[in-house]
Structures are given as C-alpha cells and as structure tokens.
Amino acid sequence: MNYNTDFFTDSLTGLCAALCEKAGVAPPANAAPASKPLLDELSERYGDFAADRVLIYNPDAVGDWVMDKYADKLQNSLRIAPIRHRFVTVFPPKTPVCFASMYTGAQPETHGILRYEKPVVTIDSIFDAFIRAGKKPCIVSVKNQSMDRIFRGRDMDYFSEKYDDEVVERALELIKEDKYDLLCVYNERYDDAIHVTHPTSRKARHAIDCYETNFTKLIDAVRRDWTGHDTLYGFCPDHGVHRMLIGLGNHGKNIPKDMNISHLFGFIGKSK
Ligand SMILES: [Zn+2]
C-alpha cells in the first residue's frame, strides 16, 4: 500500500447496512448494500451472531495511515477490536459529509451535505431504522459538532457535552443504565489538534493516546455492564488527514491520506 497513490475500494456507505444486518434491523431506505467483505470478516471471526446492542465510537480524523503510524499507541484498540476493515470514505472528506454517509449509507448527493455545513439530514438514517424496529438509539457528542447536529429531529435521545472527556463520562453512565440499543459516541481531539498543529505533532500524538484510552474505557464498560447482551462495537473514524505545504494538518482532498480509513470491530457475547 502506497499512501500517496493507492485508494481503498470498499465504500464507507456499505457500513450502515452491515450494522443493520448484524442487528436484525431493516436498513435505511437509501443505504448502499451492506459491505460483504466486512460481513464475511465478522462471520469468520465470530460466527453467525446477531447483536442486540451496537456501540460505535467515532474518533474524528484517524486516517488509515495514522492508525498504522501509531499502531503502538492504539495497540489496545487494535486488540479488543481485532477486525480491521478498510474503507474509502466519501468525498469531500469533511466531518459532516462523512458522518452523514456513515449513518445513512448514502452518497453525499443523496443525503445533501456536500461541504462543511451542518444541516439536519432529512433522508432515512440508521437512527430512523432502529426506531422503526422498536429499538432505542442515542448519540453522545461534543456540543454543536456535526454528530450533535445533523441527526436531530428523531424520536431519540441526544447528549451534548463540553468536550471529549465529558462525552466519554456521559457514555459510561449511559452504558451502565443499560437502555440504549445503538449508542454512538463522538470524540474530536485529534481533528482539533491537527488543524492547529499537524498530524504527527506532540499535541496530535496526545490526542491519539486519548482516543485509545477512551475507546478502552467504553469497551471495558460494555464488558462489565452489558453482560446480558450481544454487543457489536466499532472504532469508526470519518476521514483521514494530511499535512499541507504550509505545515498545518488538514483534510478535504481526494487523496489516499484523507480518503482511506480503517474501522475496527469486535463483538462480546452475553455471559451464559
Ligand atoms: Zn472529521
């Protein structure tokens, strides 16, 4: 894999229907077909499970190359979510564009977010699909960020917190309450760090350490508090990142560093 020339081929739009299929939920109306390679990888590792719970951690801006470069920093995440699936995200690789596609399964021209703006997505989403199936979704995000804004208006719970640590604290409480079937947890520290420094700065490296710690805390909580459930969980960034000639980090170009992402998945079955 050459980070400068090679694009992954499996579209991020195939994630949404794959999550729905594993959760026994009919996918949203505009979702692309489920990613067959991802479903195959899940089956090979865990058998033909059905998940009654799904927890998705969304760490902003961890490109595939970043995950490789900091595999040592992310070693526990890579261990507890051992399926690493490579997706090409949607263009432009901007946060609201990518999350809208991740959770509708649709391309930007269909969900309507084509640049950095945060309108409410009005087409069918995974949240609508779960609600129709009688399940309870929930989004925990940093206040006013994309994940906090673009899926508003559904009959579900939203928690808007001050920053990443508060998001994770809230998510840990919610896991303990044991009532949501789909829990999406958004963190942004790495994306913030790369825009004021660059993708491998000290500040950025610290953000990667925080993502590792936070994902670990969430999955530890699932293991402790969701013993009565079969839980599929993921570490699912929206897009990657590159360093501009002027030195700062950025994302938004049609280049592998921005477009190639890896998602990590794992499964914990209920205690017998
Ligand atoms: Zn982002």
**CATH architecture classification:** 3-Layer(aba) Sandwich
Shape: globular
| β-strand number | 9
| Fraction in beta strands | 15-25%
CATH superfamily: Alkaline Phosphatase, subunit A
Summarize the structure.
With 272 residues, the chain is an alpha/beta fold. The chain contains twelve helices and nine strands. Helix 9 (164-177) packs parallel to helix 11 (202-225) and helix 10 (189-196) runs antiparallel to helix 11 (202-225).
Question: Mind explaining what this structure looks like?
Answer:
With 272 residues, the protein is α/β, with parallel strands linked by helices. It has one domain: Alkaline Phosphatase, subunit A, CATH 3.40.720.10. 40% of the residues lie in helices and 18% in strands. The chain has helices at 14-23, 36-46, 64-69, 75-80, 95-104, 108-111, 126-132, 146-149, 164-177, 189-196, 202-225, 256-259; strands spanning 53-59, 83-88, 137-142, 157-161, 182-187, 231-235, 242-243, 249-250, 260-268. It has a seven-stranded mixed beta sheet with strand order 2-9-6-1-5-3-4, with helices on both faces. Strands 7-8 form a two-stranded antiparallel sheet. The radius of gyration is 17 Å and the shape is globular. The model has no long low-confidence stretch (mean pLDDT 97). The chain binds zinc ion. Zinc ion binds at residues 60-61, 95, 191, 238-239. Zinc ion is lined by residues 60-61, 95, 191, 238-239.
